[in-house]
Amino acid sequence: MATLADRLVVRTSVLLALATLAAAVPAAARSTSEGQGATAISGVVVDSAGGVVPGATALVTNTAGAKFEAVTNHEGIFNVPAITAGTYVVEVSLGGFKTYRTEVRAQPGLPAALNITLEVGAL
User: What is the value of pTM for the model shown?
Assistant: First the structure.
């Protein structure tokens, strides 16, 4: 049977290990995201009358040609998370509307938020 002193040593060792792990995880996550320049591009898409546009495709392309795609939800919102900082071309399209295109500079830790209005196109 373990003595009281033995149980206290084990309990202290476990608490010390947990405290060390708890301190290390946020630091590791922070250094990973900062080291890679993690950011995001999101937006709200509306029509010329101000109504939200669900189902529009947002295509986000960086200067190296990597493409990320998102679709607006029922509130007209899209989000492209966990991308590296840099310059991106954002194209938003949906049948019946003209394609919207803009260039965005996404900075590390500072997500870019866009307000996009789609104009009615050829039907």
Answer: 0.70
